[in-house]
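Human:
I keep going back and forth on a fold encoding question. Comparing notes only helps if you start from a blank page. Show me how you would write down a chain together with its backbone fold. Write it directly below this note and I will take it from there.

Assistant:
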Amino acid sequence: MGDFEDQKAAIESGFPGWQVWRSDAGRWYATRSTDLTDAQLQAGYAMTVAADDADGLRELLAEQAREDL
């Protein structure tokens, strides 16, 4: 997948509950579509993660998924 919209759709499909976008500088971001509890925040969950590319973003989202309660 080379097209941003295709990659975005694939990531959001693979990681429900996250909204993906790319900055003007080309950095990839994902933000949760729901709020975290105080306990989740204290446990190290992130509301937003950022990576240099789509693969890096997928890795970060997979880490967040492994930590999900």
The helical segments are 4-14, 38-42, 54-67.
